[in-house]
TrEMBL record:
InterPro entries: Chitin-bd_dom, Chitin-bd_dom_sf, Scoloptoxin-like
One Pfam family here: CBM_14
SMART domains documented for this protein: ChtBD2 (SM00494)
GO molecular function: chitin binding
Gene3D superfamilies linked to this entry: Chitin binding domain
Residue intervals of the Chitin-binding type-2 domain: 37-103
GO CC, alphabetical: extracellular region
Species name: Galendromus occidentalis
Record flagged with keyword Signal: yes
Keywords linked to the UniProt accession: Signal
Signal peptide: 1-20
The protein, known as: Uncharacterized protein LOC100905037 isoform X2
Keyword Signal set for record: yes
Length: 148
């Protein structure tokens, strides 16, 4: 029994995950009910939380230490009132200016460029691809004061 307990404690010390969704009190007043389903991939980056309509995003930061210990830090943030996380630009913006939340995973590859010397943040191809998913560019945005 002691050996099993020791094995569990050692395993816990080797791989530690810092949990997501440590948001300020009252965050649900801005974003609505919060689904805690997001799990960080084992790579650094900024990730839209699709299950929360991209009103929440996460920064994932895996760390490997020389002693073999591994930690996965997850930092969660919510966007300001009436804004969403845009996976194309890693910013919070108005929904009509952002990649549609459901299509955010198609742009997760942009995280692969973070920290790469001389890598362009966005290429012409990235922007062209995104246009199909951004309401402002594909004619689906509602306009204020429209008489239609």
């Amino acid at each position: 029994m002691k050996a099993q307990l020791l094995a569990v404690l050692v395993a816990a010390a080797v791989s530690i995950a810092i949990e997501a969704y440590d948001l300020p009190d009252g965050a649900e007043l801005i974003v609505g009910p919060i689904k805690t389903t997001f799990k960080c991939p084992e790579k650094y980056g900024y990730w839209a939380d699709v299950d929360n309509d991209c009103k929440i995003f996460h920064i994932c930061h895996p760390v490997d230490y020389p002693d073999g210990k591994h930690e996965l830090f997850t930092y969660s943030f919510f966007c300001g009132n009436q804004t969403v996380f845009n996976q194309l630009t890693f910013t919070c913006t108005w929904p009509e200016e952002a990649v549609a939340c459901a299509n955010s995973p198609e742009f997760f590859y942009l995280n692969d460029r973070l920290g790469v010397k001389d890598a362009k943040f966005l290429t012409f191809e990235d922007i062209e691809k995104a246009k199909a998913y951004i309401p402002l560019y594909n004619g689906q945005a509602n306009t204020l004061g429209s008489t239609k």
